[in-house]
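User: quick one, fold this
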Amino acid sequence: MYSKKKRRYFIWITLLFIIQGCIDDNYAVKEGNFSPDFQLTNLEHGRFFLNQQRGKFVILIFWATWCQQCKGALLELKLFIEKYKDKNVILSGICSDPENMDDVKKIVYEMNLNYPTLLDNSAKVFSKYKLRAFPAIILINIDGKIDLIRYGYNKNILYQIKKKLEL
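Assistant:
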């Protein structure tokens, strides 16, 4: 587990993103805009390139090891994506605090997550997207545009994603 000092650091970073988002909202990633490209390493040391996913729906969930709400969302999305495994939909979890790999691996193993876990070292992609909180769920359409951005987690988010996928 993380020390109080490290948790406090992540809380301050999250607050700074919220404040920056309020001030600098014109530069934040928005629904309808093209998704910024990125590449990240997964737990198996493979590479994930967002630009290679064009033609598919991509669901991204940004999470942190200390975030309890994230863990619920990771599990719910795991069950949700099972219904779309034969369709053109990809789900990837992006851990934005992978400094303690043992914690990341433990969470992925205990939850039996069957989708890629990407490692966002120093929260670079989280910052690039100008996200404000964990969990952050983003749906990118087949054209590479952002269809949905949601913070936190509730069952209504799954319903919203389902509606977008079935259009």
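User: anything notable?
Assistant: The chain has a mean pLDDT of 88.
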